[in-house]
Amino acid sequence: MSMPEQGHPSDEQRHKPAFRPVPFPRVELRFGHPARDYQPAEWVTVEYSISGLDGERLRAFERSILWYTEGKGEEDMGVHFFERFAAPVAMAGAVPEGTFAVQLPASPSSYEGVIVKIRWCVRLRVFFESGRDHVSEHVFVVGRVPPSIPP
Q1: How far is CA 18 from the centre of its chain?
Q2: What is the DSSP string of 65-89?
Q3: Domain 22-142 adopts which CATH fold?
Q4: What CA–CA distance (Å, rounded) separates 136 from 5?
Q5: Residue 110 pLDDT > 90, yes or no?
Q6: pLDDT at residue number 4
Q7: How far apart are CA 64 and CA 125, in angstroms?
Q8: From CA 58, how far away is CA 117, in angstroms rounded?
Q9: Which of 8, 93, 120, 136 could pair with 27 in a Cys bridge, judged by C-beta atoms 3.0 to 4.6 Å apart?
Q10: CA–CA distance from 39 to each of 5, 63, 120, 123 (Å)?
């Protein structure tokens, strides 16, 4: 077995695929209220566009509105709106751009507590045929509960 000459790549090096980092999609999202501030029972209107898919084939796409808690203890989450597109025809109408509107519930309101926080967000999730996925979350405020003041 001969050794490759110095300065020349071996067969293994010549046939090894070059490392190519997988790009993440870029998500732009615009709320109907630019300040992202809503009242309970108000309608949230969202426009979004997704770029940087680089020709990757999509398996599914989800868009949702949910709330979640942060802080001490167990974290909680509630999904208020959820839509999944898996058929190519349906995805073509939702990706790479779309608009949707959802009426918010009466509660819970956003809350900035010392021990726990309640956050609302729009979540967009893209699933690729390769098995990877990308999640983009965009936080907004619901209600006017004053923040908690530490003792």
Answers
A1: 29
A2: EEEEEEESS---EEEEEEEEE-SHH
A3: Immunoglobulin-like (2.60.40)
A4: 49
A5: yes
A6: 47
A7: 9
A8: 34
A9: 136
A10: 72, 21, 12, 19
Cis bond upstream, residue 23 (ω within 30): no
Whether the pLDDT of residue 13 is over 70: the answer is no
Q: What is the mean pLDDT of residues 10-23?
A: 56
Q: Residue ranges of the domains in the chain?
A: 22-142
DSSP class of residue 11? Answer: H
- Report whether 139 contacts 120 (CB < 8 A): yes
The one-letter amino acid at 89: V
User: pLDDT at residue 103 above 90?
Assistant: yes
Q: What is the distance of C-alpha 64 from the center of its chain?
A: 9
Is the CA virtual torsion 24, 26, 32, 33 positive or negative?
positive
Name the pLDDT band for 123 (thresholds 50, 70, 90): very high
Judge contact between 57 and 108, C-beta under 8 A. no
| Between residues 116 and 73, the one the model is more confident about | 116
Burial of residue 112 (CB within 10 Å: 0-12, 13-18, 19+) is middle
